[in-house]
Amino acid sequence: MRYSGFAVLKEALTGHRGWGPAWRDASPQNAYDFVIIGGGGHGLATAYYLAKEFRQSRIAVLEKGWIGGGNVGRNTTIIRSNYLLDGNQPFYEFSLKLWEGLEQELNYNAMVSQRGILNLIHTDAQRDAFIRRGNAMILNGADAELLSTEQIKQRYPFLNTENARFPIKGGLAQHRGGTVRHDAVAWGYARAADQQGVDIIQNCEVTGFRIENGTCIGVETSRGFIGAKKVAACVAGSSSRLMAKAEMRLPIESHVLQAFVSEGLKPLLPGVITFGAGHFYCSQSDKGGLVFGGDLDGYNSYAQRGNLPVVEDVCEGGMAIFPNLGRARLLRMWGGIMDMSMDGSPIIDRTHINGLYFNGGWCYGGFKATPASGFAYAHLLATDTPHPTATAYGFDRFATGHMIDEKGQGNQPNLH
Ligand SMILES: Cc1cc2nc3c(=O)[nH]c(=O)nc-3n(C[C@H](O)[C@H](O)[C@H](O)COP(=O)(O)OP(=O)(O)OC[C@H]3O[C@@H](n4cnc5c(N)ncnc54)[C@H](O)[C@@H]3O)c2cc1C
CATH number for the domain including 291? Predict the structure, then answer.
């Protein structure tokens, strides 16, 4: 069924009896051409583009839980392409362009909202760094604008611009950045992939790889062995645990990242805003809740919940830029497991095992990458060559020293 305003009207008048399930509940077959492990945003997008753009068939997505239960449904929904380094910027700009046409492409309302993102500046040195970043973005075809404190005051009158420990001295805006309803992205890709003939198999955990003579010929799962010509791992925070089953040790650590949402408030925050003197980012959801987050908890963990010191730190960051946040009540908080790479940038590459591919290391930033990651991974799986925007995302950069250290933090995963 094609979703449209007309369909909504028709169903409203006929008792909503025509809505079918958005995708089939497929049972695993004995073998596929492509098995994608992980039904998060990246795995589902990969399956969709593999079928739609690269005309491949016999594709399955294996998800150990349910679609949308991982980080794709836990993030703070921010999309942007305000990256500095050549290895990253074209990839994230490609992703933003895909977001711009995504709802039409998938025939699904993912609530893509280009409400803009503003990174606040608090020191002169930070202004220099943001001017450099803005210029790099413009050189790569993205949009960027440096705003003065006066311009920021007009748009965000409630911000504590002067009477603050870290006065606001301007900001770098990307007006095409914004937010997207995260779980709708998973559902939209799942439905569109299903329509292309992809089998989406939930409650099917991959428990091992079957590797013969250096070639991966399939996966062991909680629902039996499934053969595959190509196996594509795409499990975000579970990357290290999964690839250990193929005896691979990854340049990735897993850390908890928490997020928070306040009670519903009247419209207050028109766009996404980030604090430049600490780590705090915030937007307002269409239901009115302030959705915000900050740093990782800072220790290795696979538990999808965090601890109180980070709650305090995040709230301090929020209070530093808009003290009226202190009067809002917190509605919910939750955690997700981040696949933090050594240089803060992702990996989309073949492994040393024939037929086994890897996508991971997304750190805090994988949601905005979802469309491009899916497209680039599908390109790699279909052609065995990296997509032009993802050539820097190889494993070999850790051996050759060609790091893509966007934050300049060195090889310390919890700082990226
Ligand atoms: C609190 C929080 C806030 C964030 N905010 C942002 C943001 O604002 N902007 C941004 O760009 N990014 C953000 N991110 C990061 C982003 O959400 C992730 O980088 C991205 O979602 C990871 O890709 P995914 O969607 O494929 O992951 P997931 O949705 O986690 O998908 C991986 C899937 O693999 C499954 N799986 C694991 N092991 C197995 C197995 N053995 N067999 C089968 N299936 C398996 C899991 O169940 C899971 O469903 C945030 C993350 C968190 C946690």
Answer: 3.30.9.10
Cα separation, 335 vs 304, in Å, equals: 5
Q: What are phi and psi of 60, to 5 degrees?
A: -130, 145
Ligand 1 centre distance from Cα of residue 6 (Å): 34
Within this chain, do residues 373 and 385 fall inside the same structural domain, yes or no? Answer: yes
Task: Write the CA distances from 38 to 81, 142, 329, 358, 394, integer angstroms.
Answer: 25, 31, 35, 11, 20
CA 196/CA 369 separation, integer angstroms: 22
Distances, alpha carbon 358 to alpha carbons 212, 230, 349, 373, in Å: 18, 11, 6, 11
Task: Tell me what pLDDT residue 1 has.
Answer: 87
Pairing of strands 289-300, 252-264: antiparallel
**Strand 356-360 vs strand 252-264: parallel, antiparallel, or unpaired?**
unpaired
pLDDT confidence of residue 256: 96
Residues of the chain short of pLDDT 50, as ranges, are none
| Helix (H/G/I), strand (E/B), else coil: 347 | strand
For a pocket test of ligand 1, which of 75, 119, 180, 292 has the largest count of ligand atoms closer than 8 A to its C-beta? 75
State how far the alpha carbon of 281 is from the alpha carbons of 41, 152, 177, in Å: 22, 16, 13
For residue 386, what pLDDT is reported?
A: 98
> Of 341, 357, 392, which residue constitutes the final position of a domain?
341
Same domain, 312 and 408: no
**DSSP secondary structure code for residue 130 in this structure:** H
In a domain, 5, yes or no: no
d(CA 24, CA 315): 42
Q: Supply the range of the domain harboring residue 268.
A: 117-177+254-341
Asked whether residue 59 is assigned to any structural domain, the reply reads yes
The residue whose two tokens read 């940038």 is 345
Atom of ligand 1 nearest to the CA of 62: 43
Q: Does 352 share its domain with 391?
A: yes
CB 255 within 8 A of CB 240: no
Final residue belonging to a domain, choices 341, 369, 403: 341
CA of 279 to the centre of ligand 1 (A): 20
Ligand 1 contact, 39 CB (< 6 A)? yes
H-helix segments, 207-307: 239-244
Cβ proximity of 96 and 176 under 8 Å: yes
- Reported as half-sphere exposure (CB side, CA atoms, 13 A), residue 131 has a value of 9
Residue with tokens 């074209």: 90
